[in-house]
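Hi,

I'm pasting everything inline rather than attaching a file, because the server keeps stripping attachments. The sequence lines come first, and each chain or strand is labelled.
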Amino acid sequence: MKGIAYYKEGEHVHDFLLIKSVTRGTASNGKPFLTIILQDKTGDIESKLWGSTSEDEKNFVIGAIVLAEGDITTFRGRNQFKIKNIRLKEDQEVINKADLVMAAPLSANALDEKVTQYLFEIKNPVIQRLTRALLKKHHQAFFEYPAAVSIHHNFLSGLAYHVCCMLDMAKEVVRHYPEVNSDLLYAGILLHDMGKLKELSGVTATSYTLAGNLLGHISIMIDEIGESARELGIADREEVLLLQHMILSHHENPEWGSPKPPLFKEAEILHILDDMDAKINIMTRAIRKTRPGEFSERIFAMDNRSLYRPTFDLQEEQEIQDLSQGTEKKQN
Amino acid sequence: MKGIAYYKEGEHVHDFLLIKSVTRGTASNGKPFLTIILQDKTGDIESKLWGSTSEDEKNFVIGAIVLAEGDITTFRGRNQFKIKNIRLKEDQEVINKADLVMAAPLSANALDEKVTQYLFEIKNPVIQRLTRALLKKHHQAFFEYPAAVSIHHNFLSGLAYHVCCMLDMAKEVVRHYPEVNSDLLYAGILLHDMGKLKELSGVTATSYTLAGNLLGHISIMIDEIGESARELGIADREEVLLLQHMILSHHENPEWGSPKPPLFKEAEILHILDDMDAKINIMTRAIRKTRPGEFSERIFAMDNRSLYRPTFDLQEEQEIQDLSQGTEKKQN
Amino acid sequence: MKGIAYYKEGEHVHDFLLIKSVTRGTASNGKPFLTIILQDKTGDIESKLWGSTSEDEKNFVIGAIVLAEGDITTFRGRNQFKIKNIRLKEDQEVINKADLVMAAPLSANALDEKVTQYLFEIKNPVIQRLTRALLKKHHQAFFEYPAAVSIHHNFLSGLAYHVCCMLDMAKEVVRHYPEVNSDLLYAGILLHDMGKLKELSGVTATSYTLAGNLLGHISIMIDEIGESARELGIADREEVLLLQHMILSHHENPEWGSPKPPLFKEAEILHILDDMDAKINIMTRAIRKTRPGEFSERIFAMDNRSLYRPTFDLQEEQEIQDLSQGTEKKQN
Amino acid sequence: MKGIAYYKEGEHVHDFLLIKSVTRGTASNGKPFLTIILQDKTGDIESKLWGSTSEDEKNFVIGAIVLAEGDITTFRGRNQFKIKNIRLKEDQEVINKADLVMAAPLSANALDEKVTQYLFEIKNPVIQRLTRALLKKHHQAFFEYPAAVSIHHNFLSGLAYHVCCMLDMAKEVVRHYPEVNSDLLYAGILLHDMGKLKELSGVTATSYTLAGNLLGHISIMIDEIGESARELGIADREEVLLLQHMILSHHENPEWGSPKPPLFKEAEILHILDDMDAKINIMTRAIRKTRPGEFSERIFAMDNRSLYRPTFDLQEEQEIQDLSQGTEKKQN
Amino acid sequence: MKGIAYYKEGEHVHDFLLIKSVTRGTASNGKPFLTIILQDKTGDIESKLWGSTSEDEKNFVIGAIVLAEGDITTFRGRNQFKIKNIRLKEDQEVINKADLVMAAPLSANALDEKVTQYLFEIKNPVIQRLTRALLKKHHQAFFEYPAAVSIHHNFLSGLAYHVCCMLDMAKEVVRHYPEVNSDLLYAGILLHDMGKLKELSGVTATSYTLAGNLLGHISIMIDEIGESARELGIADREEVLLLQHMILSHHENPEWGSPKPPLFKEAEILHILDDMDAKINIMTRAIRKTRPGEFSERIFAMDNRSLYRPTFDLQEEQEIQDLSQGTEKKQN
Amino acid sequence: MKGIAYYKEGEHVHDFLLIKSVTRGTASNGKPFLTIILQDKTGDIESKLWGSTSEDEKNFVIGAIVLAEGDITTFRGRNQFKIKNIRLKEDQEVINKADLVMAAPLSANALDEKVTQYLFEIKNPVIQRLTRALLKKHHQAFFEYPAAVSIHHNFLSGLAYHVCCMLDMAKEVVRHYPEVNSDLLYAGILLHDMGKLKELSGVTATSYTLAGNLLGHISIMIDEIGESARELGIADREEVLLLQHMILSHHENPEWGSPKPPLFKEAEILHILDDMDAKINIMTRAIRKTRPGEFSERIFAMDNRSLYRPTFDLQEEQEIQDLSQGTEKKQN
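And the predicted assembly:
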């Protein structure tokens, strides 16, 4: 299987795919149609099912696995999948579900081990206990959730993977700049996006909860830290206040959601590492889909820039796919 | 006693005053001096004590009551008090301390009654219980605190007075626009600035606490509401989320400290009433100190505008003082 | 009749409606079609008349009343009316034209009485005469015009209704804050949007006049006040200048059309009340069309926010319609 | 006489000068002092009169001519005049008052002739009559006023000189771009700043009037054009509306005071020529005071930039003075 | 031939036209179509070729000349060309290619003469040699290139025509303001957009080069001036630095591409003249296509404004066409 | 020697110090004084020499070493040095000049070795040769210059030290994100601030050159890279363009001096690492001067924030000094 992200215009597709989202519309001729986003582990693609029946609407729902056949066309520079045939996977057809879900290059277990290791390195007992308690409370979701609905690390375990990349970079920062307090920095990284577990509705077909819409993950987390600190009897410790401030300020800027800017150095560094890891993830994904010597499609989260891929960058498409499927694992 | 706010350049002062703040400096001739802000219930004034001794530094501290004599001069359009003699009040000298402290036109008891009355009008039991619990928890401070360090309602009981003015206006809004939910609006008003009880250090010589600097009154209050709701066993009710959102959004705008804009109509109206009451308070105080036909000094909290006082506005200085000391009480 | 604003997707419509606007287009198959906006007193809806004939173009013009039959579909979250049959109302068919026009909850007469009453309360003779003269000059249009083309109070007598709501709130402001000059405030409210009578083309099918485009209602009104003051021989009075300033500054901000910010307190309060009444009107209309527990469609005039309707808000659709048709009248 | 603008640090001054402004202050030793701005036709300079007596305050008022002696010092890069002796000019001392007032390089008569000539070139009778009427109404002030309080062309006849420079450039624009309507452009230039005659208090010791503060010269002029057009019976002509719009929009941008941007090409060109002439005037004056190879003092009206004077620019100080006093006259 | 820019909705076209651009798309019925922009010397128009064949894709490429027949329709206020028949021009069909290309009103030769003349007027030998060398290096392209991809002067020789209009206006500026250094100003004008010869891909079907995308014409030109100055052995002269600064700053503002604002007066004037000539060109073209008494389509480069064409402006369509084809030549 | 940065208010100083800058002023009593900034390797302090003689002005010039005695006072929260005695160091007095100059924690030699090592790791021959050539051309200055006049790394070898810290972090980035091109990233880091060698006047008493003021280090470097590439015969290689773009875009944002934002991933990462290293340097220096439990003075380069130093941060002043003098060296 080639992977839905790697087909080019004019190529023929005949693959098992997972339905990521479905919307019903009415065409200008008055007939209903379905806009279906189909995905496998390499990415997703939009398709239209014209003249859909009520049977179709009942079958093709979020999470269903289908066998789809058709051709790749393009519209405004994006691939579309022109479906000729589509049907539900039948029970006797055996597929590996992991092939249909985008996931972090590291498994939930590997990420869990890494997190545990950094937790051990936190020496300050208040920071240690608080961080440990919160990780325990949200253990399962923490290692499953994506880091965002659609922007960066939007894949299985994306949140924990994002946290682990940041922890590794933080370790280097601490090594180079010995006056940085590693306890605060590691704990801040571990907790900074934990509010997303309540802001987002779940692991698949992710949307915003009412709390997500009305409060946002930052305010949710301020409240969570306060609650845990009270449960542990450490609510009056300065460390708790500092961690709450790190969460509050980690978007740096009022317009990006932080009512206070970072007011001590570890809070500022948390913001920089968060921003750097998110941007490198976004840029790398965009460049993988771009041919050397060309500009990528516009990237909303990077101020709508198109990024250039140098002509002397990796040349072989095959390499790119290998990389996205395996190489990242070798980094450790 | 004329009131320190009403002296004009060239007039002679000989009054008991309260020290609001003291800063030590070194003059260009190398000698120390004290910058002392002196206040009575009508306002405050800056003075310099040149060539101050270590004795002076020990005596003239925040909160001390002094007998000061000297002349009024002006500097950049603001009055200054050129001290000729200053000494501590002696024990046998009897003064009424209420004459030295700016206070709301209504007493703490009167404000308490008004608040209790509005609390009764809240019908929704979740909103009622939560608001009542929080008012009870902070009862004394709530009726003593100023509403801000230096901007609006910065006087004794300023916070509760600001809340009561808003409640009265809210009652009219509800009467004119029957689709507005009065339970949410009244509760939002009662709670919106309660976080200031932890953001500010106290009733006099008010400054920001560490929690105030690192979290701010909005985030503090999100956490407080969450805590009370859990104690009352109503943490999963939508009403709690809505009240948290009202607090979160009541500054309207990220740059003014609200990470989310108001997302339901009562939240928006809370913001408008808060803004209106603060601005009318600020403008009224500035105009009281301005002569008809002239522009006021620049008002920082009103985008640095100078406001004009029409020539046909109240003419008699005496009236103005009467008004500021008594008339507001008649409004009820 | 149910009211065009209250149909849901899939429902069938067979009603008399008024044509609010018509635009001709050419479909991708090269055939002409008409985009017709149809209205009744509850709101309006877009429809397409595919393959329109020149006969259709002659019949279906702005202001025509038609009998239309078809189904409700949705496109991007907005209702559309898929017309199956449409024809002009025939002469013998009797309908109540008031059912097809959105109007203020109070009649023009009731609004006129209210305005007269407030006019009586203005004590300052210069302000009184000037305001009275301008109201007299524009009497009929003032009580018929909408307050805006499409944003707030865009219905028959919308302008006068908006003014009357503001006057009622102003009365409360004056009662609570006795230093506010009610003469200036009432007159400012009465005149603030009068320039719209020359900025907008008329009561129905409202568009901008050339003077509206090139000068705007604020500058038009500066000139009108000057003219009336000269006619009354009071052009050199400070009151005239103050009223001109109130008009000039009532949008608060250069980007919103006011070259000067409010420079005395009544001008500032005029702005706040104008803003509050417009926003409550906009929010209330959006929420009426939203189900409890859901977010409204995006509201352009509220920074493109979607507003939430709490689940414990009014539950019955019937109630909502009752309210929009009748209840507001009871407010007095 | 060298001219007060051309002295350097350390040089000795002994000249008759005119008092441009006086402010009273109190020094840190408690003694009064006067800050006096002294001027002659080449510019002005700040001086301090320490330990001033009440006699001094009575003598040294705005408009008085004094004989002052002292040295030039510098403070933060600006020259100051350290007065040693100062006294009022005595009656028998004869000086030429024109030497003490900054004035345009062209006389009021020469400017009047130029304006008359351009008025003749306006062919459209509505535009001609309206412009002629307004020039007649304000004839004397128009040829005497400065163009601004302190920014550009702040000298005698500065307004008319600014208008004439713009008219000459406009003539070239019309010659190069024949589709530009010269009637509108010339009339727009003649009227664009006429509102300043009511915005500013007068020719010397210029400050803002109440109308200037509350309405500004743009709104004042909208009203004036409307009044004149009604007097001439041409109030309903499109030309009047267009001229009002040109005045309204000539600052281009809401933040700079124009509620509407220019909406036809002559309005846009009016803005560009106004801006260009003001900037060249500001820059030329700043550069005259700067030595080749150095940067000027910061120029507030040019976004606080310091401008560089190239080393190969005019080298001789004498030349510069000649230029400022005479050469500009040769331009015609 | 009427000129493609002057057809109205409903009119029939049967003309030879040049293909300016072609994009392939897939219609909602799954069939391919071509979006072809066709031009002649009066302007361009969009057309759709539905159900295009691979033969069509091979024939209808950028630069091809075709004979097209069909009708004018409108979409969102813009004309579209509904093609009925289209074929390549046959060899025996003789047309004048100049009729199909938009060009400056002056020929390349006439522009070259004008440039040479201004070059002679530059007295400073460093500025003269540097400007002459750069003009020589890029001679042919300089007189052929458009000034922009789509904004202003986007026609054959548009760059040189823009430069010549600016030079003529500059001559007037120097005449009116004798302290302006004409050597710097003329050289700055001649060089200011020369970097576009490397930023843009060529004379027809113009797009951005990689250097254009990554560096932009301003930075490209800094490097070019440095290179030429080193070749001429004058790299250490202040004049070189000043010319580099003029290029660097001629967009005035960081957001518009200039990292430094103009820091001497000739740099500022260069910016103003550049801006003025571009805007007059843009406005004139928009107004030519607008009927008197109407507003033009929105102009992106003028902050999206619609400009008004006064009712008393040129009335005859014929005149407008004459003007655009011939009259501009008469300006010299 | 304690180090001038570590004295507290009231302490007595008697040390050899280096004059960093001198400005002459005139006191309000008319007498001249000198404002002298004195430094040693720990920092600098402002002092006033009242009633200075012409002898003083001749002796106390930038770069002179003096023996100064006096007391530490404070003004607006900053230390000042109240000089009682000051004289030039005499020839026979032996001091270690390194004690008077702030320097990077690594020697120029150590930095050179590190740079050489990274240069070896660049594999792409075009990038290698270009970077090597530019480093060779500026070898000495590159290892001596500060990184900025007053913001970050403003000490001896500050530029090279800043580059080396960034290179070490870049190595980690490349290790964690294998798709990042290390050749581009290392070369971009090595060259990004090299233009400062021409923007700044020198190693001590650093100010801006004319090229610095008119072009800035970014544009200077674009030209330098172009020149070197032409000398090496590689001017047409894409790598050169990419490196020029990295320099051009490394401030990210037009307002911060980059006319283009980063348009490929290594350019973006260069910006992030530059920003992170500068900020950590700035924050660390500010926190070293702040006591645990207090806020630092406002930091202009961090949006004027005051940073908090947690109470549980390093407690011993001695430790801090040790750290600033030695520990950083241990990091490698």
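Chains C and F do not touch (no CB pair under 8 Å).

If the labels don't parse on your end, tell me and I'll reformat.
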